[in-house]
Structure formats: C-alpha cells, structure tokens
Amino acid sequence: MSKPCILGLTGSIGMGKSTVAAMFAAEGVPVFDADAAVRAMQGRGGALIPQIEAAFPGSTDADGVRRAYLGERVFGNAAALARLEAIIHPAVAAERQAFLLEHAAAPMVLFDIPLLFERGGADQVDRIIVVSAPPEIQRARVLARDGMTPEKFAQILALQMPDAEKRAKADHVIDTGTSLAETEAAVRRLIAGSKGCC
Q: Structurally, what CATH architecture does the domain formed by 1-30+106-198 represent?
C-alpha cells in the first residue's frame, strides 16, 4: 500500500511558518502541528501533566502547565531543558505516528515541526520545506509579539540553526517576505509539484 508523501515544514521564529501551514491545510493537505500537540498535552487534563509536575514540582495547576513558570525554569538551563524534552519528544512522536495512521490514504501530509533540523527529524520526512523572510521582517514580526524583548529574541535565535543553513538544507524554500497572495501561489505550486514525491 502506498503511503502519503511526508512534507516537513520548518523555519526560524517569525518566518511565517504557522501562516504557511494554514495555507497547506486550506488546500486540503492534512497538517500535523507539533506545537499544537504539545499545547494539548500540557493543557487542562493533558496527558503529560503528571510527568511534568513530577520533574518540575509546582509547574502545573488546574489549568495545566504554568507555561511562563516552566519557561523560566528551563530557559537557559540546558539540563532542565533536556529533562523536559525527554518527556515531550517521545509523546509528540507517538501523536505523529497516530496522525500518519489516520491519514494513511492521503496523497500527502505536512509535519509542521519548528526544530526539524535542530532535533534531528529531517530523516523522518520525504521533502523539507523551509519558510524564510528577510532578517528585518523577521525581527519586526517577533518583536511585535507580547512579552518579547530583543534579548529574548537573541536567545531564541541562538538555539536555532541559522536561516541560511536551513535554506541550504531545504528541498523547497517558501519566501514569506512577499504578499500573502504570492505565498499562497508558491504553496499551490509546491503541492502540485510534490504529488507522488515518495
């Protein structure tokens, strides 16, 4: 039985990845959003709450993970971050596998994975799509977010593979520094050209 062509979508912070993922979904491509899966598992009644609370006492309450509190505990602390990732990553992998089974008959699926290269997930997809925009546009988008500071932006960038390296490793690059209409047209062209990519 043929399996779906798996497209991996990634890109640095502020590059428009979520917007592009929504465009794929609007074209009928099933999208697995790794961040959304994590939010669900960390939300009220989420499957990971007991493990996270055990590893980081006081980091959860009735509504789930206290994200700001947990973020302060792990941000800039490599050992704590590794402990958290050891809880989250296997759970996300299981969710992704379930998603693949659910959409086994689809011609293609999209994995929206922010740290695709950084966490070694590139070998799990058939084609890699990187979203990219000029640095000044990226910076303006990120600094417009609530609670974001230039220092925090710099710290996040330091944890991510540089945009130029991501583009060099990509099978496809989608420029999000253009108009939404131009980006949508690029998405449609990519979908049309990716049929039967496996």
A: 3-Layer(aba) Sandwich (3.40)
